[in-house]
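Annotated sample (chain length 407).
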Amino acid sequence: MSVTDLFLSYVKFDTQSDDTTNMTPSTPGQMEFARYLKGELEKMGLEEITLDANGYLMATLPATTTKDVPVVGFIAHLDTAPDMSGRHVKPRIVEKYEGGDITLNQEQGIVLSPNEFPEMLNYIGQDLIVTDGTTLLGADDKAGIAEIVSAVAYLQAHPEIEHGKIRIAFNPDEEIGQGAHKFDVELFGAEFAYTMDGGAVGELEYENFNAAGAKITIKGRNVHPGSAKHKMINSIRVANQFIQMLPRWETPEHTEGYEGFYHLVGINGSVEETTLTYIIRDHDRDRFERRKREIEHLVRKTNEEYPGCCTAEINDQYYNMREKIEPVMHIISLAEEAMREAGVEPKVQPIRGGTDGAQLSFKGLPCPNIFAGGENFHGRYEFVPIQSMEKARDVVINICRLLAAKH
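Output written by the structure step:
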C-alpha cells in the first residue's frame, strides 16, 4: 500500500474538529473516517479491531516471533484543525520541486513561496503534496495515519521480518485538546507507544509545555457617562490595565525554545463586565507554577484598586511528559536508532505545544512523538514531501524490527 495513495484517499474526508459541540467525536466526519478506516483494517486482516462510540479505533498486527517482545503502539489522530476548513481538499503533487514559488491558486493569487517559508528549500528535488490554497491539507495528522497503515501493510507483506505484537490506534479531537481524554489505555494494552504527529522529517519529541488556561472576569459599574465621575468603573479599561501588567516580552511572538509565555487568546467586554482568556505555558514545572501565581497576584493587585471587581479561574490542562519518559529513555534511543537506519538524523527538540502523547504518558502509556513529515500545519500553505512520509513509514517498520531484535 503506497503511503501516498493512502494519504490522498484520506484527505477527502472532512474531519475538522469543533470545541463547541461538547460531543466525542466533536464532529460527524471523524466517525465517518473512523468507520472507513475500520473497514480498511478489516480487509487487511488485522485482529482485535475495535471502534467505540467515541470514535477511538484500535487494531492489532500479531507477532511473527515467539520471543517475549514488549507490545509497542503507534497512534495518530483523525481530526484536522479548526483553524481552517478541511472540506473538499484538493491536493496536488509538485514533482521534483525545483525551488522558487508554487502557485496554489491562480484565480485568487495564492502563492507558496520560500520567501515566506524558507523551509521549502530543504526539499528541492523532492515531490511535494500541496493544497489548492482554499483549505488546509490535512497532513496533520492524516500523514501519520497513512504512515502507520502503510508500515503495517509492509510488515504483513514481509513476514520474514520478526516483530512482536503491534497495536495501532486512531483517535478523534486531538486538535481541540481532547484526543486522549477517552483513550482506553488498558484496552490498548501496549507497554509504550509513539504518536506519529510531529512536523518536519527527523523530529523526535518527548518534552512539551506544562499548560493551563486562565479566565479573568472583571466586573464594572455602568453609570451614565454624563454623571459618571467617581462612580463608573469601566471594566474594559480595568482589563486593559490588567493586560499591561503582564510581562510584555513573555508572549508567543517573543519566545522560542524552552521559553514560556502568557498568551491572551480572547477578550469579550462591555463597561459592565469583561472577560480575558489566557493560556499559560512553560516547559519548567516550577516556572509554570510561578506563572499561575503571578496571575493570582495581579488579580489581588487589581482588587486593591477596584475592590472585589476581579476574579480568576485557572485550570491545568496538561503537563510536560518528560518526567514520564525519562525513566524509560530506551524508547527514545530505539526511535533514534530506527531513524538513523532509515537515513534520517534525529532532531530531538521540545514541543512548543501539547500532544496526545503527553496526556497518554500521564495515563500510564509512555508516548513520545515522531515526525509525520508535514510543514505549515493548520493553514492553506500546508505541504508534505512524499519522501518524508516514506521515511516516517520506514521508521515505524524499523522500530518494530529493532525491538524484536533486542529481545
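Annotation: The CA atoms of residues 31 and 247 lie 43 Å apart.
Annotation: The longest strand covers residues 210-219.
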